[in-house]
């Protein structure tokens, strides 16, 4: 199954009201800011979008509103991060009916399966939908590791169109390409490895910090596409201290704080995530504010 997914796809933050209820207008306003900066697609309700804190009805409402608002201007993918394979299939079916352009499928939450169980989960979800799938491989966060050999094994399922490679190991991209040629569209999935992944063959980037710095994020990508390596590395060196926030267990809190500091949405997360306090908050804010003060210009 061929897809045209390329470029920067924000892992969009989900906005909440002060009482933790879903803030759809706030989320759409944040999307508008990123679209205005020229992002190439959206991933709704992924890890940064706090997927597992949302009820099914909330997911449906947010996806429906996003699709109507975006109106086909860019592809809209939706995260499938559920506790069981059956729940993942139900959400995949629902997302397809609502009109999503694709799915970003994660391994089951909480339970770490072996290789056979992991691939069975992905294959079963693929059978439940007609949508193309971005397979999200993030062993540091979700423990299940889809190796290059496993990607070769599941290459017979045409719905597996794309890989979001977040293993913290850019050499994986070369191994995948050596084993599967041009079978998969490959996206970088770790913010502070994007240049390395691009150099090795990634054609897209699912980014977290783009929520806070959409113009600079797009600038870095455009410089890479243009082959302007010196300028790209200069921007990357400015950006990297911020991009490190994407690899921390509190990446959602950090990215939302950065976004709020830049004027996009609020830092409020749903529990069990709590608003940052004390030394940790001040340390992260200092980093964000230093970046804002020295941000590059086009």
What's the arrangement of secondary structure elements?
Layout: E1 7-10, H1 24-36, E2 42-44, H2 56-70, E3 76-80, H3 85-98, E4 102-105, H4 115-127, E5 133-137, H5 139-142, H6 148-153, E6 160-165, H7 171-180, E7 185-188, H8 194-200, E8 204-207, H9 214-225, H10 229-243, H11 251-261, H12 278-293
Parallel strand pairs: 1-8, 2-3, 3-4, 4-5, 5-6, 6-7, 7-8
Structural features, described:
This protein has 298 residues and is of the alpha/beta class. The chain has one domain (7-293): TIM Barrel (Alpha-Beta Barrel), CATH 3.20.20.70. 46% of the residues lie in helices and 12% in strands. It contains twelve helices and eight strands. α4 links the parallel β4 and β5. α2 runs parallel beside α3 (85-98) and α11 (251-261) packs across α12. It is globular and about 50 Å long.
Keyphrases for this structure?
single chain, 298 residues, alpha/beta, TIM Barrel, 8-stranded parallel beta sheet, 12 helices
Helix content: 40-55%
Structural class: alpha/beta
In one word, what is the shape? globular
Name of the CATH class: Alpha Beta
Order of helices and strands: EHEHEHEHEHHEHEHEHHHH
Question: Care to give the gist of this entry?
Answer:
With 298 residues, this protein is of the alpha/beta class. It has helices at residues 24-36, 56-70, 85-98, 115-127, 139-142, 148-153, 171-180, 194-200, 214-225, 229-243, 251-261, 278-293; strands spanning 7-10, 42-44, 76-80, 102-105, 133-137, 160-165, 185-188, 204-207.
